[in-house]
Specification:
The chain is an alpha+beta fold.
């Protein structure tokens, strides 16, 4: 079968790399001629909403998915009229708008930060008075990796932040005092069967995910799975979905969801019985889902800006190196490394060394 992927970044690339051993073929659509997934499969180089390109993708494939939630929803709706598309376009429309996302969580009884929609400076002042400080002002659409958001520490920040972000629909969220950032990656098949990976404990720097570790925490695993099941049932979801949480005391506070394979699930490539990428394909192709059990202690470290020396990384035991084939650039995810081993102490030691390498790369200290 030939699978179409809207978006040809590293996520699409890793989906295809998981699918080739299953005998699948892939075609990508992306506006960037140098998109890295184009190195491993045919690339239709056109804007996401180019009707001729969408028709070509539909004609060349039996099922289509997307690796990037900021694809225009009308483009995915157009595809869905021509070919099977998973997840469904309605899901994409909700996930693209932080207000709609919060409203969905509220409808399902899922805890979130308090929030208010904001469309003017006056509304921002009122919302900040209602929610208190600190608070986060975010664009409702197109924000990722820390983009499109600003922290309000006090009333004196309101006008400056509005001048930076105003002019588009916004949402103000009360600041959550949290102990940890967690995420749950789950898969749901066409027949409604669901499988969840162990929670990931995540560390962000500058709004970009740097470290994810598989987290065997029975206190929150069941709660996270219940939330994911409620969301996926409500959306008649097919594929992999990630939900990001704040742990605040004994409660999980839902932050946002991503209707696709997710950076915090990269450790599953070597660290789980079946990777998130393979399970996404199994789900959309109507195949049985694979086991999501972790193989001991697993973690992932992102390389941002530039890659470390491959020999330095691969000299570390139980480490796997992933180069996305992207040109180095400040703030750009260019690769990652995963750890999978049975000794927690050893895993932590190797993780510390990888994080140091990642930090050096981000600072431009490695030649």
């Amino acid at each position: 079968m030939t699978v179409g992927i809207v978006g040809a970044g590293q996520l699409g690339r890793m989906v295809a790399l998981a699918g080739y051993p299953l005998g699948q073929r892939f075609v990508f659509l992306d506006p960037a001629a140098d998109a890295c997934a184009g190195q491993i499969g045919p690339l239709i180089n056109a804007p996401y909403d180019d009707e001729a390109a969408l028709a070509e993708l539909a004609q060349r494939t039996e099922v289509v998915t997307f690796e990037f939630e900021n694809v225009p929803s009308h483009a995915v709706e157009s595809l869905a009229r021509q070919v099977l598309v998973y997840p469904l376009p309605d899901t994409l429309e909700i996930a693209q708008d932080r207000l709609h996302e919060k409203q969905l969580f509220g409808e399902l009884g899922i805890a979130t930060a308090s929030y208010e929609a904001v469309d003017s400076l006056e509304e921002l002042r009122t919302a900040a008075d209602n929610l208190g400080y600190p608070a986060l002002l975010k664009t409702r659409r197109l924000g990722y990796d820390g983009k499109g958001q600003s922290l309000l520490r006090g009333a004196s920040d309101v006008e400056a932040v509005w001048n930076t972000l105003g002019g588009v629909p916004l949402i103000l969220e009360a600041f959550v005092d949290f102990e940890r950032e967690l995420s749950l990656v789950a898969a749901r098949s066409r027949d409604g069967t669901m499988a969840c990976y162990p929670l990931s404990e995540n560390e962000h720097r500058g709004g970009i995910l740097r470290v994810s570790k598989s987290c065997h925490d029975v206190r929150f695993q069941a709660a996270g799975e219940a939330i994911a099941e409620a969301v996926m049932r409500r959306l008649d979801y097919v594929g992999v979905l990630a939900i990001e949480f704040f742990q605040s005391g004994e409660e999980l506070i839902a932050n946002e969801m991503a209707p696709r394979v997710h950076n915090s699930g990269h450790w599953t490539i070597e660290g789980a019985e079946t990777s998130q990428f393979e399970n996404h394909l199994r789900a959309i192709l109507g195949l049985p889902l694979g086991s999501t059990a972790a193989r001991g202690c697993a973690a992932m470290v992102n390389f941002v800006g530039r890659l470390p020396d491959i020999a330095t990384v691969t000299a570390l035991p139980h480490v796997h190196f992933h180069d996305y084939g992207k040109a180095p650039r400040a703030g750009r995810k260019v690769g990652h490394a995963t750890i999978a081993c049975t000794d927690p102490k050893h895993a932590d030691e190797v993780l510390t060394r990888l994080v140091a390498l990642s930090d050096a790369c981000s600072r431009g200290e490695l030649e």
